[in-house]
Design brief:
single chain, 150 residues, mainly alpha, 5 helices, globular
Length: 150
C-alpha cells in the first residue's frame, strides 16, 4: 500500500477515488490501488517465471556478487530483445505469433512489461512506487524536458 509520501501522478495532491468504501476496498487513491495491483502482478510474473525454471541459475549463484551482476545484465538483454521484436512488429505490421488476435507490437510490449515485473518481483524492487515517483517528477519537467528534440 502507499505511504503518505507517495507522490501523485500529476505532481499535485493524490487523486481521490470517489468509489464508496467498504471492507473489500481499503484503498483511498488510485495510486494505492496501482501499487497493490502492480505488486500482485509482479509476484505472479515472478512466480510463473520461477516455476518454469528461469530463475534456477540465479538461485544457485545469488551469493556471488559478480554472478548477480551477470544475471541482471542478462535479464536487461532479454528486455532489450523484446524491444527489438516490438520494433519489428511495428515496421512490418505483423500479427503476434502466439496471440493471433493481437498485433506483434502490443504483444511484445506486454512481454517487456512481464519481464520487467518478473525482474522487479524477483529482486524485491518497489517498481510501482518508483513508477509513480517518476511520473510525478516528469510532470514537473519543462516541455520536451528542456531542449530535447524528440
Amino acid at each position: 500500500m502507499s505511504t503518505p509520501n507517495t507522490p501523485s501522478v500529476t505532481g499535485t495532491a493524490p487523486v481521490v477515488d470517489e468509489t464508496p468504501k467498504d471492507d473489500t476496498m481499503p484503498f483511498e487513491t488510485i495510486e494505492e490501488r496501482f501499487i497493490d495491483a502492480m505488486g500482485e502482478m509482479a509476484a505472479r510474473a515472478h512466480t510463473n517465471s520461477s516455476m518454469h525454471g528461469f530463475w534456477r541459475w540465479y538461485e544457485a549463484h545469488k551469493h556471488d556478487p559478480d554472478s548477480v551482476v551477470i544475471w541482471k545484465l542478462s535479464r536487461h538483454a532479454l528486455i532489450n530483445s523484446e524491444t527489438g521484436e516490438c520494433t519489428e512488429g511495428v515496421r512490418k505490421e505483423l500479427p503476434d505469433n502466439h496471440l493471433s488476435n493481437r498485433s506483434m507490437e502490443v504483444a511484445e510490449l506486454a512481454d517487456i512489461v512481464i519481464r520487467v515485473m518478473d525482474y522487479a518481483g524477483g529482486h524485491g524492487l518497489p517498481l510501482a512506487e518508483v513508477i509513480l515517483e517518476k511520473m510525478a517528477y516528469n510532470a514537473k519537467r519543462p516541455m520536451m524536458h528542456g531542449d530535447k528534440k524528440a
